[in-house]
Amino acid sequence: MAEEWVEQMQNQVNTLEELEKYINVTDDERAAIQTLKTRWGTTPYFASLMDKDDPQCPIRMQVIPSRKEELNEFGMDNYLVWKENRATGEVRPDSIARQYDDRIAFTVVEVCANYCRHCFRKELVVDQDLQLHFDVDEGLQWIADHREIRDVLITGGDPLLLSDDKLEYLVSKLREIPHIEMIRFGSRLPIVLPHRITEGLKKAIGGFHPVPVWVNTQCNHPKEITEMTERAVYALMSCGINVGNQAVLLKGINDDVSTFRELHQKLLRTRIRPYYLFNCEPAPGIDHFRTPVEKGAELIRDALRGHTTGMAQPTYVLATNIGKIPLMPDYYIVGKNEKEYTLRNHKGQLTKTRVIPAN
Ligand code: SF4
Predict the structure, then answer these.
(1) Same domain, yes or no, for 236 and 357?
(2) Is residue 21, in this structure, part of any structural domain at all?
(3) 353 lies in which domain range?
(4) Of 89, 112, 121, 338, which alpha carbon lies 20 to 30 A from 322's?
(5) CA distance 318 to 29
(6) What are 119-171's pLDDT values in tens digits?
(7) Same structural domain for residues 225 and 306?
(8) Does some domain include residue 81?
(9) Are residues 312 and 172 located together in one domain of the fold?
């Protein structure tokens, strides 16, 4: 008998008929599904979390195509080629994307359990306009040949959809490369398919080793976290894998103070450490999810800083072809002289403190 996570994938909700078993599909949703040439779908588990009647349900908006995807005023064509420096001088396999000297993103698969409508890799994963060839052994050889690489992010698609055997092979081969110091997986499965965190997976990628494995997931709304998520995260931690979150700032989903605070508090209660908050990237056809760039810093200032534990605070970044640019709120230093700085806190209160002045 197939494992539960495999059955979930075999029964992915990706037809109108299947979707209608979970929600009352609106005319707009129906038109988008029938018109757009795009890969869409989710797991039966994630579909079951959708609100039956509310098209503004945060899970529905991330799962179901919209006619708004046909509009593209602010998105960049060939965004992924630009973002991942695929048209620059360095010759790399398709599986290797590079923005930094000492670390790379290693794409090993291009299928997902949930095809997020706001995906920044939309051209590759969701709309499939960009055809690339991902060869794991070719990528491993490139990494072995580049001794400056010390940190590998395994990505996709969703890499945890690979079989246990393939994951074990990948992790063990990376660990054999002497200059690799850490391995990270980017995966939405703890959120959209927590069933995947099985004993077999824990054996394949977990356990003690001097080269640690980290998992960074993506959770954008508190509604995405269930008891199954909590158990999956605990299972990963119990075999030595820390779990972080890389949220995407999404208009109408998490761009208000109360949802934003609840999301980050709930992540911590689930033992997931908020790591990054991404400004929604300028991939084509996702303008309707994007907020002004200042919004993320405002939310960190108004919902998190001083309002809840510091551990709940992600770093807000804009991802670019030259790396992530931090965009944190900047309201603290309101005055300074040679001996003293005047500082403002989250309530607007002022204080003075003695500091070592800048030269
Ligand atoms: S799981 Fe990740 S790669 Fe897949 S569609 Fe969502 S954001 Fe894109």
Answers:
(1) no
(2) no
(3) 331-359
(4) 112
(5) 30
(6) 999 888 888 888 888 999 999 999 999 999 999 999 999 999 999 999 999 99
(7) yes
(8) yes
(9) yes
The pLDDT of residue 337 is 87
Residue 119 lies in a domain: yes
Q: Which of 43, 121, 187, 196 to mutate to test the pocket of ligand 1 (most atoms within 8 A of CB)?
A: 121
Other CB atoms within 10 Å distance of the CB of residue 209 = 13
Residues framing ligand 1 (Cβ under 6 A): 112, 114-116, 119, 121, 125-126, 156-158, 188
Query: Do 178 and 82 sit in the same domain of this protein?
Result: yes
Q: Are residues 298 and 348 in the same domain?
A: no
* Count: domains in the chain: 2
Distance CA 4, CA 45 (A): 11
Per DSSP bridges, beta strands 333-336 and 340-344 are antiparallel
User: What CATH code is carried by the domain that includes residue 92?
Assistant: 3.20.20.70
Determine the distance separating the centroid of ligand 1 and the alpha carbon of 344, expressed in angstroms. Answer: 39
Whether residue 341 is found in the same domain as residue 305? no
- Answer yes or no: do 206 and 91 share one domain: yes
Q: Ligand 1 mean position to 177 CA, how many Å?
A: 28
For ligand 1, atom 3, name the residue with the nearest CA: 157
Between the CA of 43 and the centroid of ligand 1 the distance, in Å, is 13
- Please tell me the least confidently modeled range out of 91-95, 129-133, 184-188, 305-309: 129-133
Tell me the pLDDT tens digit for each residue of 231-266.
Answer: 999 999 999 999 999 999 999 999 999 999 999 999
Do 336 and 225 sit in the same domain of this protein?
A: no
Q: How far apart are the first and last CA of the chain?
A: 69
The pair of structure tokens assigned to 135 is 């060869």
Residue 201 to residues 16, 136, 155, 174, 196: CA-CA distances in angstroms? 32, 19, 16, 17, 7
Residue from 40, 59, 112, 124 whose mutation best tests the ligand 1 pocket (most atoms within 8 A of CB)? 112
Confirm whether 39 is domain-assigned.
Answer: no
Whether 218 contacts 244, CB under 8 Å: no
Q: How far is CA 29 from the centre of its chain?
A: 24
